[in-house]
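Quick note —
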Amino acid sequence: MDSKTIVKKIFDSGVKSVLPDHMLTNSVRIKNERMHVSDLTINLSNFKHIYIIGAGKASALMAKEIEKKLGSRISAEHIIVKYGHSCDLQYGQITEAGHPVPDANGFQATQEIVKILDEAKKEDLIICLLSGGGSALLADCPEGALPEDLVKLNQLLLISGADIHEMNVVRKHLSKVKGGQLAKTAFPATLVSLILSDVIGDSLDIIASGPTSADHSTFSDAWKILEKYNLVQEIPVSLKDYLQKGLAGIVEETPKEGDALFQNVHNFIIGSNTLALKAAYKKCLELGLDAEIITSELQGDAELAAQQIVNQSLEVQKQLLKGERKVLLYGGETTVQVKGKGLGGRNQHLALCATILLSGKKGITILSAGTDGNDGPTDAAGAIVDYTTVENAGRKKVNINYYKENFDSYHFFKEVGGQVVTGSTLTNVMDLIVVLINAQ
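Predicted structure written out below.
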């Protein structure tokens, strides 16, 4: 197999390991009317109704697997997914909605979920299915704001250079469902959340903006983030006014650790980037390749990350003896502060930056791609590059620097080749970067 085929096989193995149905099969067991999740055992016969709700790119497949386990016990069900990420459900409804920018479908479907929770009583069980993308899909407006105000906010955050932790701190304080507030609506029912993590550190209050977990951030934190990225004057006035009311204590803070409303809430992370990296590592061994997991917490600017990865790869290459090969594995999520008007995502931009650094340097192949199958607002998951990428660009008279400066990585790889296109994977645990290094 050539190097590009090898890194793609390794990436595919990582993604396959965190498909929602696989994760749920391993994490949730039901026997004799008892549901077992980790160390929690719930007697299903104690509940009058069982409601299923969820939001995220992986939530549809998660719901389908839960249906197999619970069947006709389900009283009502509503799931929100990104367009193209749905599947058939037998006992409830799926709404496809906008991501990464919310749209009318998301706002409407979120209200339907709130209606289900409003019906829930102490004798009811709610199973909440969350994954990456939930922050945009679980969409609502604070008092005094309009949906278009939230759309504008999300657009600004996405191009600001803010990481997902920062973006979600702001989102939580402009919502009545994020930041533990979905759990507040569900109280006093028993709430079990099954979660696929798409954030560094698997922070419960950050994944999907933590709708069922205690929030560790404040209105002050949200305001400081907007100041950091010079967005205070850019966001709609209605949102700025709401945040200022929060700062003044007029609007109540998000629920915090120790709040009684969390006494019947159980949050479980059932899949993460670390699991995908371990599966990718195992695939390397199956292929007879020496491998090393470098980190599951790659973050920061995509261009700087590309420099780090290429430099580390070159150092490893120097140590290899003739005929030896080694794979370096990275997981995480970088950021891009978009300055041009092009199209792309963090993975394709990282790969484009790596392309320039690999010019003339043989023996290193880099794949950078999102486990969800979508890198930014594109149909590509990412890209594969090596020293031939620059050569291909030269033959086709494609100006690499022009595409890099305009943040147009998608069209660069469309022209030159190298895009990784998987289609929707129905999962999401951040990104995987696979580097195959051959001795020279």
